[in-house]
Amino acid sequence: MTPVEIGLISILGIVVLIYLGVYIPIALGLVSFVAIWVMRDNLELSFALLKIAIGDSVMEYTFATIPLFVFMGLIVSKAGLGADIYAVMNQGFRRITGGIGMATVGANAVFAAVTGSSIASASVFSKMSVPEMLRHNYNPRFAVGVVAGSSVLGMIIPPSAMLIIYSFVAEQSVGQMFLAGVVPGLMLAAAYVGAIWFMGRFTPGFVGGEAIEHGPLMGWGEIAAKTLPILLLIVVVLGGIYLGWTTPVEAGALGSLLGIVIAGLRGRINLRSFWETVLETGHITAALLFLITAASMYARMLGIAGLPNALQDILASNQFSFFWVMTILVVLMLFLGTILDTASIILIVVPLFLGLIEGMGLSLVWFGIVCVVAAEIGLLTPPLGISCFVIKATLDDDRITLKDVFMGALPFAFVMLLVLIVLIRFPALSLAIL
User: Fold this and answer.
1) How far apart are CA 132 and CA 137, in angstroms?
2) How far is it, in rounded angstroms, from Cα 394 to Cα 410?
3) pTM (2 decimals)?
4) Domain map of the chain by residue range?
5) CB 420 within 8 A of CB 373
6) How sure is the predictor about 186, in pLDDT bands with cuts at 50, 70 and 90?
7) What phi, psi does 98 have (nearest 5°)?
């Protein structure tokens, strides 16, 4: 067999292994190791490339962003900032039909700016938002759909773990990827709010609910007490990166320190919970390091197989335009989204298209935003929509089935697809503040 054929079989093997439940880094690393050995008939070369992949991952200075931002997100969750921003948003949208859903989107957008985790958002807002919406007679499918749809904002609004992973795979600046995610993330949040208004106006049966005309209102002092801490974190982290005062690593360190101070002042952390947070950060960081190392090995296998060049030659020989290249990419990612998680999709697809996108003179930063948004849709689609599973597990309510969660998330997945098309058509949106 030719190296290209071995490379194609390897990709298929990786997808099958992941689908069968093999741990993603093991599937990526093991198959890539064996494929290089078979292609070059040299076991020492496979070990040498594995050593280089591990060294590159561990020794990268920017890798320090991962434990710092993970720690910051966990601390912020313990400090209860998600509940605070939700309460404020809920008051702002209370008189609008579908207002609690809009408040959930807004709170998720702000919460995502300091956590970067869709799973954390889905877990936190399932406990707060869904019971509140059910109490005000909202359709259960709409209630869980809003939480599922808005939870994916954590994957695009910085600091996002997926943007960090992409930056390692594509060798792009983490800071630039963070800044590029701001406008698309806000666009997606605004599109969700617009979609909720549209559904409330034209499909009221799906939304249900009622406007809240009465009830206690928070004073300006209480609003400030609930919003200033999280706004301060956003300014310190993203403002420092945008103004060039801090690197992403330094911003993560400052954000973590500020998160500890806020949690301490609120009495939400002690030595035991601090130690538990440190341990959880270590577990998540180790898993991501393993994933990035395996992805590095996979990228080297693709290079040796010549698959990126072969793909570029096929598309060039058939004179595929920019439109068709993007169509192929999006369709492939949407298909993989039905069976794989976001990280797997990015790690498998991105290395195949990097050379082609760069050869077309397109921005790899913009391409990263497109890939992350496209892969995010998979969080909402069956059978492996992770956010939907997290919501179902968190609610533990027999009245709401997994089918209800997926059906409720479907309109929001469609909105994501529309936003993705706009981002592809107008790359300047992703590069606006760079």
Assistant:
1) 9
2) 20
3) 0.84
4) 3-429
5) yes
6) very high
7) 85, 10
pLDDT of amino acid 58: 65
Q: What is the pLDDT of residues 155-174, one digit of tens each?
A: 888 888 889 889 888 888 88
Residues 185, 159 contacting (CB under 8 angstroms)? no
Q: Is the pLDDT of residue 215 over 60?
A: no
> Contact at 8 Å (CB) between 153 and 121?
yes
Q: How many Cβ atoms sit within 10 Å of the Cβ of residue 422?
A: 13
Number of other residues whose CB lies within 10 A of the CB of residue 315:
18
For the ranges 55-69, 115-129, 140-154, the one whose mean pLDDT is highest: 140-154
Per-residue CA distances from 145 to 91, 121, 210, 394 (Å): 21, 13, 17, 14
Residue written as tokens 């759909």? 145
Cis-peptide, bond into residue 131, ω within 30° of zero: no
Q: Which tens digits make up the pLDDT trace of 229-266?
A: 888 888 888 888 888 888 888 888 998 999 899 888 88
Cβ atoms within 10 Å of 321's Cβ, excluding its own: 9
Residue tagged 């992350």 (tokens): 372
pLDDT at residue 400 in the model: 84
Cα 287–Cα 291–Cα 296 angle in degrees, nearest 5: 150
Q: What is the reported pLDDT for 211? A: 62
- Neighbour count for residue 133 (Cβ, 10 Å): 26
Q: How many Å apart are CA 297 and CA 25, to the nearest integer?
A: 10
In three-state form (DSSP H/G/I as H, E/B as E, the rest C), the secondary structure along the chain is: CCHHHHHHHHHHHHHHHHHCCCCHHHHHHHHHHHHHHHHHCCHHHHHHHHHHHHHHHHHCHHHHHHHHHHHHHHHHHHHCHHHHHHHHHHHHHCCCCCHHHHHHHHHHHHHHHHHCCHHHHHHHHHHHHHHHHHHCCECHHHHHHHHHHHHHHHHCCCCCHHHHHHHHHHCCCHHHHHHHHHHHHHHHHHHHHHHHHHHHHHCHHHHECCCCCCCCCCCHHHHHHHHHHHHHHHHHHHHHHHHCCCCHHHHHHHHHHHHHHHHHHCCCCCHHHHHHHHHHHHHHHHHHHHHHHHHHHHHHHHHHHCHHHHHHHHHHHCCCCHHHHHHHHHHHHHHHHCCCCHHHHHHHHHHHHHHHHHHCCCCHHHHHHHHHHHHHHHHHCCCCCHHHHHHHHHHCCCCCCHHHHHHHHHHHHHHHHHHHHHHHHCHHHCCCCC
Q: What is the pLDDT of residue 189?
A: 93
Instruction: Look up residue 108 and give its amino acid.
Output: N
Higher local confidence (pLDDT), 53 or 156: 156
